From TrEMBL:
Chain's role: Pyridoxal 5'-phosphate (PLP)-binding protein, which may be involved in intracellular homeostatic regulation of pyridoxal 5'-phosphate (PLP), the active form of vitamin B6.
Record keywords: Pyridoxal phosphate
Cofactor: pyridoxal 5'-phosphate
Residues with the N6-(pyridoxal phosphate)lysine modification: 42
GO cellular component, one term: cytosol
Family according to the record: Belongs to the pyridoxal phosphate-binding protein YggS/PROSC family.
Domain Alanine racemase N-terminal: 25-237
Gene3D superfamilies, per the entry: Alanine racemase (3.20.20.10)
Transmembrane spans: none
Descriptive protein name: Pyridoxal phosphate homeostasis protein
Length: 243
């Protein structure tokens, strides 16, 4: 990704993030091209997403169904959209029909949402959707996600009963102040080990989505294959609110 004198602030920030990802990968003897950076673009205007897209980046994440449904048609179809927010059942159909290039939902945290996704995908006839099972590794009541003890059962439900979903791995958010981040990340890694042993698949086939703007380097060093970086790339500028 060659630098350009015309690059804006967001494009320059993305380059810095990718360099930090590369360095964190090297510290843990991993290949940086095996680590996906999701540019979290919630509340950011389409113009900023386009700036980052124009650097060659293709993976973007949104937290709100209304926003991703509004933005996706305004941007190129080769974007790989990740939905990373809590998904309510009544928003499943608008999300899937409004974003044909939705690549992954990272926030499957109970059987009901898995069943709804599976049913709607079957009804609209789109290809199977990649999903991650969200695990609440910090034990906070304010956090979504299945308890670590229930992780395997939910994964088995997805793999056995949801033919239109492709289970790809596990996701967690962790403590907001990062004080317990290593323990949270270790818990997710332990969940992966349990899942892979039960499904008899190699751990390389089960992604770990953990790490955000404040802790993505530590997450990579602890095995993350997918990091969600927002404010570090896009800054504080926000999407105009509807009147």
């Amino acid at each position: 990704m060659a630098a350009s004198a015309m690059d804006g602030v967001a494009a320059t920030a993305l380059r810095s993030v990718l360099q930090r990802v590369k360095q964190a990968a090297e510290r843990s003897s991993r290949a940086s091209d095996r680590i996906r950076v999701v540019a979290v673009s919630k509340t950011k205007p389409v113009s900023l997403l386009r700036e980052v897209y124009d650097t060659g980046h293709r993976c973007f994440g949104e937290n709100y169904v209304q926003e991703i449904v509004e933005k996706a048609p305004q941007l190129p179809e080769d974007i790989e959209w990740h939905f990373i927010g809590n998904l309510q059942s009544n928003k499943v159909k608008p999300l899937l029909t409004g974003v044909p290039n939705l690549a992954m939902v990272e926030t499957v945290d109970d059987e009901k949402i898995a069943n709804n996704l599976d049913r709607v995908i079957g009804n609209i006839g789109r290809k199977p959707l990649k999903v991650l099972v969200q695990v609440n590794t910090s034990g906070e009541t304010s956090k979504f996600g299945v308890d670590p003890d229930g992780c395997l059962a939910l994964v088995k439900h997805v793999t056995s009963n949801c033919p239109n979903l492709e289970f790809c791995g596990l996701m967690t958010i962790g403590m907001p102040d990062y004080t317990s981040t290593p323990e949270n990340f270790k818990t997710l890694a332990n969940c992966r080990t349990e899942v892979c042993n039960a499904l008899e698949i190699p751990e390389e086939q089960c992604e770990l989505s953990m790490g955000m703007s404040g802790d993505f380097e530590l997450a990579i060093e602890m095995g993350s294959t997918n990091v969600r970086v927002g404010s570090t790339i896009f800054g504080a500028r926000e999407y105009p609110k509807k009147q």
